User: What shape does this take?
Amino acid sequence: MPHNNNMMGTTMRLTTIAAACLVAATGSAWAETLEERLATAETRLASLEQQNSVADRITINGYLRFAMETQTNIEDAAGNKLNYRGALEPDAWDNKRLSRAGLQVNARINDEAEAVVQLLARGSDDFAVEAQWAYLAYNVRPDITVRAGRLVLPFYLHSQYLNVGYAYPWVELPTEVYDTIPADTMEGIDATWNINTGNINHKLNVFWGSLETEAGGVLFESDHQHGINLRSTLGNWTSWLGYATTLISVDLSANPVTAPFSPDRAYAHFIGTGLQYDNGSLVLMGEATELKISAPANWFPRLPAGYLMAGYRFGKLMPHVTWAYGYAEDSADVVANPVAAGLYDTFASRQKSWTVGARYELASGIALKADASHYYDFSNNEVSTQGVFTGPAGSGAPDNSNPMVIRLAVDAVF
Amino acid sequence: MKKTLIMLLLALPLPLLAQADLVVVTDSNSSIRSLTEAEVRQLFSGQLKAVAGKPVQVLDLPGGERHREDFYRKLMGRSPEQMRAYWTRLVFTGQGKPPREVSSTRELTTLVGSGGYIGYLPAEAAGDNMRVLYRIQ
Assistant: This one.
């Protein structure tokens, strides 16, 4: 046995020496290749890590919609042709007004700060690119986020994503409610507090900012716009409560007759309430809103609006039906003056509508939609309006039995 | 005889229902002991971003994975398309990001094992380095 051990020891020693000689002989070459290999591997690892951190830091999302719409032949009592929102014509498809594309980049600056830019190109603006969102977000605490920059107006249940068609069932959001204010962004600051109480999640948001928008051919400047809103979720239920006030200035001095009626930092308020139920199959939604501007001689109407929607998912297909209304109130409050009455009439719009539609999930991220809307009830004993229809000067409300608009769309997110 | 028959009848639907239980897991060294159903729902819908004061990141199995579809159907009664629409509403309003999507169950187990992550997988795929926080039957 000892002999054996000795033998093995000798063999081992010999092998070691042989190996040492080999290393000595080819030493530099080995070390180089090893070092090189290590260095290459390290570089590769570093670049992989870099890629990972860029992927973690920057996310890009987008949405795209192609929509087409047309209307039936709509005339007033005198036979004047009327157009839905001044855009549609019978026997012709408009492929532009509701078509749009958006691209959003979220870039994380550090653990607390993030920059978000969402660029939007709308067919209605000839696809001119504008920023829908462009803000810096900062997490003051894990549950409080402060944002500054261009923000979307938090006025409605669906207002924050109103351009992302994939997020809601219709081709066009109920126009009576969603077009009360012809603007969807403001420049300002907001703070959102995320609160969990038991099973209920609340998002309490306060905001302050300003905006400019054109309506009825005049420029509305909204200043010192501030408000508060609360979105609460409990299981299948979501509720929305919002209140905003602002100071509105409108320059009507282009015409000496209307000049004295220019609102100069006139107080205005907007109230929005909404409720949604979605158990995965049944979807119910309702919203009620109101806009009022305290204009000189009370010429601006109070504009309440709302809708109720019900839908049911049969697998990938969801048929839905919606009833909506938009009224113009407080005509009796307008000071007896023909100019004030004329201004009131310009901004007063009354109508109701029924919309039946369907959404089909072609794939995760792509939805096909079709809606048909029927409009009615454009006047009552106080106001006589054309609703959202327009026609030649002096034209009246749609008079034929079936003023209808048909819309088709494909909505995608990526 | 009657008893056996009843037993047999009771046992009959079992093989049909014997779909794999899904478990919500984190690493075994985590300070989180367990989660309630409401917490799991809130975590995977982006309403809850921290548990017991510690930020956590949730992981999703690859899109189109059968277990992912099962998870959301059982937990929230939502189809993959509905979850997509839900996250669309949050993503484009800057309110949240969907869970990080892994490329495979193996990536999920590796990440969960590394700490700070919460994921879900079939019960039999849960390893020794993981703690089961919630079980979906």
About this structure: The first helix of chain B runs from residue 2 to 11. The helical segments of chain B are 2-11, 14-17, 37-44, 66-76, 80-91, 105-114. Chain B touches chain A at residues 38, 42, 47-50, 55, 63-64, 76-82, 84-85, 88-89, 91-95, 97 (CB under 8 Å). The longest strand of chain B covers residues 130-136.
